[in-house]
Amino acid sequence: MHRFLIGLFLFSQFSFPIHAQVGVASDPEAEELLSDISNQAKNYLNISATYASTLIDLQADMRIEQAGDVLIEGDRYRLNLGDYTIISDGRTVWTLETDMGECYIDDAEEISADGMDPSKMFTIWESGFQKTWKGEVDLDGQELVRIDLYPEDKSASYHTIQLWIDEGRRQMVQLLVKGRDGSDVRYLVTRFETDLKLPENSFSFDPAAHPDVQLIDNRL
Fold first, then answer.
1. Dist CA 122 CA 17 (whole Å)
2. What is the CATH number of the domain that holds 152?
3. In terms of Cα–Cα distance, which of 187, 183, 189 is closest to 56?
4. CA distance 99 to 103
5. Does residue 220 fall inside a structural domain?
6. What are 98-121's pLDDT values in tens digits?
7. Is 197 domain-assigned?
8. I want to staple 198 with a disulfide (CB 3.0 to 4.6 A). Which of 95, 162, 184, 202 is the partner?
9. Bridge partners of 96?
10. pTM of the complete model
């Protein structure tokens, strides 16, 4: 699988159920903790995180690992996938493919509707899920809390999202998306910083700084 497609696949798992169905009520403990994390995340000026993702396709006996860095400020983001950088100012998305010398331009709303929205990485649970409290677990020597999310939209490409959370810091440490097709995607947050002083151009693409890059505008 092409590395860029892997990156898009990994983040496409952060799509929200569009047609929510009425499901079983969530556990109050899970609702309260996730609400606290969402509120805390929204009070940050910005978030800068590094993660390691692993795609495990059980049917194809395939394992693909990828590292990424993401900056988030409101609905704006900058996702670095090595040879690819995806930038959004909340209205427009620029996808810079360095090796090919191309930059694709899309409407942020359309990209988000397709399930590609890194700005929701730390608040994915806010709507469209039943939340189940699984209790305290040990993850590599860390005492964490696990909460499982079940999409209310039964047509979603995954059946469960498992969250491992540092309850004291109110931070997500690991997330596992369990796909209906037998593929699992794990995200391990290896660095999490907030309220940084960022360059003014962090969430925009300057064509003048990339004179050899061809712009391909996909907007209508």
1. 16
2. 2.50.20.10
3. 183
4. 11
5. no
6. 889 999 999 998 887 766 788 888
7. yes
8. 202
9. 85, 103
10. 0.84
